[in-house]
Amino acid sequence: MKKLRLPLLFIGIYLLSAGISYGVFSFVKDSGSGSVVETPIPQEQGQKGRFPVLTGPKDQVCPINGAKFTKTEKELWEKRRPLMVMIENHADSRPQSGLDKADVVYEAVAEGAITRFMAVFYCADAAYALKGDYDVGPVRSARTYFLDWASEYADYPLYTHVGGAHCSPANGNSGPCTTDKRAQALEQIQAYGWLNKETKSDLNQFALGFKVCRREPDRTGQPVATEHSMYCSTEALWATAAERNLTNVNYKNVSWDKNFRQWKFKDDSPSSGSVSPEFDFWQDYKDYRVKWQYDPSSNSYKRFNGGEQHVDFNTKEQLTAKNVVVQFAKEAGPVDVHKHILYGTTGTGRALIFRDGLVIDGKWAKKTRADRTLFYDSKGKEIEFNRGNIWIEVLPTTGKVTY
Hints:
6-stranded antiparallel β-sheet, YerB-like fold, 2 domains, alpha+beta
């Protein structure tokens, strides 16, 4: 009997490995779209078991940024609604995770010249999320103007954050409210109905479990302060939304995109231009200076953050964008002792749109909080974005852009 144990052990290991291989390569069944599964991406630091990469005819258009994906990828995203995640840009928070898989990214100052991102996940993240991993972060708190942009993506948007600006005293936990009412993001979230029993679209980390978001202070190999260590799983966030009956439809069985206004898109048309924008959000704060270097070989823009290549922690690759928009908005503040900043998100204003190596000097317009921000050229024609990810950089009206 002892002599038989060793061969049986090898047979068992073989069968187990064969079963795992079958499971991985059977993740996607062919449904006539020509989709197949490639070998999973090798696991690196910060990468714990990616979904398989989906290939096949890319003929399905993402409604958010016009990029094209496979039918299998669409079958994944169309069961969900867009997911917005607040990601910080403090110098101690870099490199961030997950920005490379966002369809749209908004950047604006949160306070003290420090910018913050709101990443919109929907199409690109559908089949590329880190399965079971905390793939996006560091996640930080809510700000009122980001709520206005999140409102453009659904009746009850999935808005992920760690707390936020709210009615609070100047010091400690007692005393009169010293927060400007216009900056009270948490109170606004409640007023907008995102905390209603039937919806619960707000994804405040304080109301989520450890399996959805957790602190990883040693993630990048350099220990950081607690506030820079919160990471979340996009897979778990969407699962939480599904548990709340917030999939592609709301509790009334109404699709999230019923009133969604799509932007206009076009195919790439690279020019001989090489316009590369560079700017500060606030003067003399070089840690947050941004440069987008145009790359004619890919007809896209490579991002530099604080004078260095802006690299994603998960992939170790430099972030790029197919379209870069600089939106000039009226800035107010600090408006209270907490140094909160406000930006005008409705009305109209100037905008610079960078695509195909050229710049369009145009304008932006947004009627109400829930309306989509639209962009136009100098003649009033709506901008057609290149298919692919879009970065929207929000500067004060006094901001300067060199290119």
